[in-house]
């Protein structure tokens, strides 16, 4: 059901924790399934130097949080904005269709942290939309086909 990468990131998650005085913090949840993700970003000179997360949820939620933080470290803000739920799922070698919402939570929590960074610094990040608190409101945005991403 789950790929080896999903299981590895669930059993040995990377970047768990908090960043004190983070440049940006984003929290999103999904009331439908109860998962909650909080992402912390440390941004210096437009580069994401560090990312941490805390997730309350299923194994897929932990794995997607872990992978999303791995994908974003070292990226520019513009590159980080291009990380989608689909790219997170693909980096994990796929997710079952019923768990694709976890990858959307990962994408949205990253974007929420970037939004927080932009608000704290009174800047506009082109292409960044105001985050939603409940990702269930955006389930129609899932980038998947009928069978999910495999």
TrEMBL record:
Gene Ontology biological process: iron-sulfur cluster assembly
Superkingdom, natural source: Bacteria
Gene3D superfamilies noted in UniProt: 3.90.1010.10
NIF system FeS cluster assembly NifU N-terminal domain sequence ranges: 1-122
GO molecular function: iron ion binding; iron-sulfur cluster binding
Listed transmembrane segments: none
Name the record gives this protein: Fe-S cluster assembly scaffold protein NifU
Organism placement in taxonomy: Bacteria, Bacillati, Bacillota, Clostridia, Lachnospirales
Encoding gene, per UniProt annotation: nifU
């Amino acid at each position: 059901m789950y790929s080896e990468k999903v299981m590895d990131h669930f059993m040995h998650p990377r970047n768990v924790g908090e960043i004190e005085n983070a440049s940006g913090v984003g929290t999103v949840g999904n009331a439908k399934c109860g998962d909650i993700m909080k992402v912390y970003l440390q941004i210096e000179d437009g580069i994401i130097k560090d990312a941490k997360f805390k997730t309350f949820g299923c194994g897929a939620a932990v794995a997607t949080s872990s992978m999303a933080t791995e994908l974003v470290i070292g990226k520019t803000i513009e590159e980080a904005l291009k990380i989608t739920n689909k790219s997170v799922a693909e980096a994990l070698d796929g997710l079952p269709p019923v768990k694709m919402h976890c990858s959307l939570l990962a994408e949205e929590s990253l974007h929420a942290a970037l939004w927080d960074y932009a608000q704290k610094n009174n800047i506009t990040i082109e292409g960044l939309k105001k985050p939603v608190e409940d990702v269930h409101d955006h389930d129609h945005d899932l980038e998947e086909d009928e069978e999910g991403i495999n």
